[in-house]
Amino acid sequence: MADPPRDDGLRIVVDDDPVDEVVDLDDSRDASEDGEVDTDLESLRDEFIDAFNGRDLDALLAVVAPDVECPDIAGEGATALAEEIEAIWERSPGALLTRALLDGIPCAVAWLPDEDGCWSRAALVCFDREGSLLSLVAVPDDADALDRAEADDPTGEELDEWQDWAEWDRGEATEPQDRARPRP
User: Computed from CA positions of residues 103, 108, 114, 118, in that sequence, does the dihedral angle turn out positive or negative?
Assistant: First the structure.
C-alpha cells in the first residue's frame, strides 16, 4: 500500500501506523469546533499593536476576551487591562509597540523615546489566544527575553502615523522630530 501524499506542517503519528491516524497540527489549530477559522495569534497581535499605537481603546478591547488574563497587573479581565493601558498612555505618551518574535512566537516589544528621540526597549508583551480573541496579555519581567526578541525598530511609515499624540490630544500642531537618529 502506497503512503498518502504528505502536506506541509507538523504531524503527530498516533500508534505506529502513520497511514491510519495522522493529526495535522497546522489544520487543527486553525479551525474551531464549529468549523469557523480562528484568527491566528499573529493577526491578533498586529491588531492589538495597531490599536495601542493608534490610542484606540475600543479597537484594542475588541481583540481581547472579556476574561483576558493579565498576570502582571492588578485586577482581572478586560476592564483591568483597559485601565492599565490608559495609565500607560498617560504616564508615557510616547510609548509604542512593534511586532516581534520570541523563539518563533508572535509577541510585541514596547519602546520609549528619550529626550533626544532615541528609542529604547522598555518591555516585552506576550500573548496567547483562545478562538478569535486574545486570552492572555502578559508583560514578563525577563530582560533576557526582551533582548532576544526579534523586533522591528520604531521607524518608518508606521512611526510617522503614530508619532505625535499631542496634536491629536490637544488639537495643537507640532513639528515632527527626526526620531531615526543613531544612538550615542
Answer: positive
The DSSP code for 142 is -
Domain for residue 1, yes or no? no
- CA distances to 101, 108, 135, 158 from 161, in Å: 23, 18, 28, 5
Under a CB-based contact definition with an 8 Å cutoff, are residues 183 and 117 in contact? Answer: no
Q: Which structural domain, as residue segments, surrounds residue 84?
A: 41-156
Tens-place pLDDT, residues 83-103: 999 999 999 999 999 999 999
Kindly report the CATH number assigned to the domain that includes residue 118: 3.10.450.50
Q: Is residue 172 part of a domain?
A: no
* Predicted confidence (pLDDT) at residue 166 exceeds the cutoff of 80: no
pLDDT tens digits, residue range 45-87?
999 999 999 999 999 999 999 999 999 898 889 999 999 999 9
